[in-house]
Design a protein that fits this description.
The chain is mainly beta and 607 residues long. 12% of the residues lie in helices and 34% in strands. Strands 3, 28, 29, 30, 31 and 32 form a six-stranded mixed β-sheet that branches. Strands 8-9-10-11-36-37 form a six-stranded mixed β-sheet, with no helix packed on it. Strands 4, 5, 33, 34 and 35 form a five-stranded antiparallel β-sheet that branches. β16 and β17 form a beta hairpin. It starts with 37 loop residues before the first strand and ends in a 13-residue tail after the last strand. 33% of the residues are buried. One of its GO terms (cellular component) is fibrillar center. Pfam families: TAF1C_beta-prop. GO terms for molecular function: RNA polymerase I core promoter sequence-specific DNA binding. This is TAF1C beta-propeller domain-containing protein.
């Protein structure tokens, strides 16, 4: 990793106060539309014109979608393909076929009357009934089939007298006391309601794309897409090729069935070695990935407490940080075991009422970032006890709001060696570990759901003036927000343009081919699945146009969307019609061009 040690000579003025936040905005727009802090652009003299530079610039790169809908990367398996155009109103046979497919219970529910001669669906058969002698009793047959799957427990004790008393006194004597059952049921329903709105176990996302270096010049770049195929415990490694205008997936994929649901997937490519770390509730595993060999498991470990984070080291190959909900953070060195580096039995700054913990590496290999819902600290693990310094906390200094909580931390090593990204349910912050407690840059991301997924796309380096792109994603609302900023080296950080919301699958139902109403409702239901991960990669880079493709995983479906922006020389011009300049994206699998996608399938933070 190239270390960028430059620091801005002049920062934007800011105010620091470590007291608890008490800001309550009277509107819902946050600070959107504000220029933020200002600083003089040139030394001021008596004869010079006053010129200032704003921290939030209105002009920026404008990105547009090349496809009106998200495109499935993989074709549906064992699915009935719907026609792209509605059926002819006078074609009775096609309408009857659609009725059989869409309403099988109504279409074939009368089959019992047709089978009445050979199948008896009633109660006990009458003796010596000539019409029922050769018939099959369906109730008896179902009872026999159910007994084949039944496994009797050898320790079960039955008593006719006890069963009789239980039925007689069931309204007064309960198996579980109501006073005990009621609060447990209320607690379980409350937790399920909170998890449906915001599941903190999926923080970080279960989707990663690992690009491999190209072996020959001019050949398409290969990559490995790692995701959870069934949304539960099926880990899949899929080889893909990144062409300038398409993403091609290989026919074969490597699959591993884990012992628990996949919660997070993290990757690292250091010194030519690519590894993938997978986190479930109580287990962690590391796989080795290469373009020439099949993925294989390097090491796995288990924990007595729920694991909340796993992250790779960008400095040393085979080192990871593992954090658990007990407050412990371990340094995991493959082949050498675990080392406890920090343990906390409470939140850092105040009672955040959450056991969630998160760990990331920093610019030094032995200085880590330890975070919870109240803030983040830099911890030097070379000394015992560990030396800790505050990097970020929920306070007035960061212009936080009352009730705001930290949701995700990400070390921005691809962008800058000393920068970290911190997101809350309202804002996103860029912090420099050399100048802690005061954010270098702050956005109000304007997302409906809390951002728990993050991916960064570097330019040629922020110190040279390139624009870095940060993608934030949410779970239930399927939002993907694009933030752009520059600086951090010799110049102070500035944002380029307002946050841009990318297309969501649920918003593309109106752009799908026209279908009959109940099929449209089915498509809308499948396109509203919660997201499980977010990643992106550059497809083409030139002096006049830049494009990237983003991958988003929704339960059992993986979508790919392509975006492009107009030339840099035109970014300061006003809006104009770009329909003639848009290029289409084709996703190919098994050498078949996919031109039309197949219909596929307000929350807050827990206080």
């Amino acid at each position: 990793m190239i270390m960028d040690r430059e620091f801005p000579s002049v920062l934007f003025p800011s105010f620091y106060n470590s007291e608890p936040p008490d800001t309550a905005l009277g509107h819902c727009a946050g600070s959107w539309g504000c220029y933020g802090q200002l600083r003089p652009l040139t030394p001021q003299t008596s004869s010079s014109t006053h010129r200032f530079k704003a921290q939030h610039e209105a002009a920026g790169d404008v990105w547009c979608h090349t496809e009106p809908v998200p495109v499935p990367l993989f074709s549906p398996k064992h699915a009935v393909l719907w026609p792209s155009t509605p059926a002819n109103p006078l074609d009775f046979s096609e309408h009857l076929q659609n009725f059989f497919v869409d309403h099988p219970s109504d279409a074939f529910g009368s089959a019992a009357g047709l089978l009445g001669d050979k199948m008896h669906f009633g109660g006990r058969q009458r003796k010596n009934a000539p019409e029922l002698q050769d018939s099959i009793r369906v109730k008896k047959m179902n009872h026999f089939m159910d007994k084949l799957k039944y496994q009797a427990c050898p320790w079960t004790l039955t008593s006719t007298r006890v069963d009789a008393y239980s039925r007689l006194l069931s309204d007064a004597v309960h198996s579980v006391p109501v006073e005990l059952l009621a609060p447990l049921l209320h607690e379980e329903l409350s937790l399920q309601s909170l998890d449906a709105a915001f599941c903190e176990a999926n923080t970080g996302g279960a989707l990663e794309l690992i690009p491999f270096p190209s072996s020959t010049e001019g050949a398409p770049q290969s990559a490995c897409l790692v995701y959870c195929a069934n949304g539960v415990d099926k880990l899949t490694f899929q080889q893909v090729a990144l062409h300038p205008g398409a993403v091609v997936s290989a026919d074969e994929a490597s699959t591993f069935v884990l012992k628990g649901p996949v919660q997070q997937i993290s990757s690292s490519s250091t010194c030519g070695h690519s590894c993938v770390a997978v986190r479930s509730l109580y287990h962690c595993g590391v796989w080795s990935v290469s373009p020439s060999q099949q993925p294989h498991l390097l090491q796995a470990t288990s924990s007595a407490e729920r694991v909340s984070c796993v992250s790779f080291s960008p400095h040393v190959v085979g080192e990871l940080l593992v954090a658990s909900e007990s407050g412990a953070a371990h340094l995991w060195r493959l082949g050498r075991g675990m080392q406890l580096v920090r343990s906390e039995d409470s939140n850092l700054y105040f009672n955040g009422q959450s056991p969630w913990r998160w760990c990331e590496f920093s610019a030094h290999p032995r200085v880590m970032l330890y975070a919870d819902r109240t803030g983040a600290e830099l911890t030097d693990i070379r000394v015992q006890p560990s030396s800790c310094h505050t990097l970020f906390r929920i306070s007035k200094g960061a212009e936080c709001r009352s009730g705001e909580r930290l949701l995700l931390c990400r070390y921005l090593s691809p962008l800058h060696s000393f920068h970290h990204l911190v997101t809350t349910q309202y804002s996103a912050y860029v912090l420099d570990e050399r100048f802690p407690c005061v954010p270098m840059l702050k956005w109000d991301h304007m997302m409906d759901s809390p951002p728990v997924f993050c991916h960064v796309l570097p330019g040629s380096g922020p110190s040279t003036g390139a624009v870095a792109k940060v993608l934030l994603g949410s779970q239930c609302a399927q939002e993907v927000m694009l933030l752009q900023y520059a600086g951090g080296g010799a110049e102070a950080c500035v944002s380029r343009g307002p946050p841009q919301a990318l297309l969501r699958p649920r918003d593309s139902v109106e752009r799908l081919p026209a279908q009959i109403p109940h099929r449209t409702e089915l498509s809308r239901a499948r396109l509203t699945y919660s997201a499980t991960g977010l990643t992106a990669v550059h497809l083409k880079r030139s002096t006049s146009e830049e494009s990237f493709v983003s991958f988003k995983c929704y339960k059992q479906e993986t979508f790919s969307t392509k975006s492009w922006k107009r030339p840099r020389l035109q970014t300061n011009h006003g809006p104009r019609d770009q329909s003639s300049e848009r290029t289409s994206l084709r996703l190919v699998r098994r050498k078949v061009s996919v031109k039309k996608p197949h219909p596929s399938g307000n929350s807050g933070c827990r206080n």
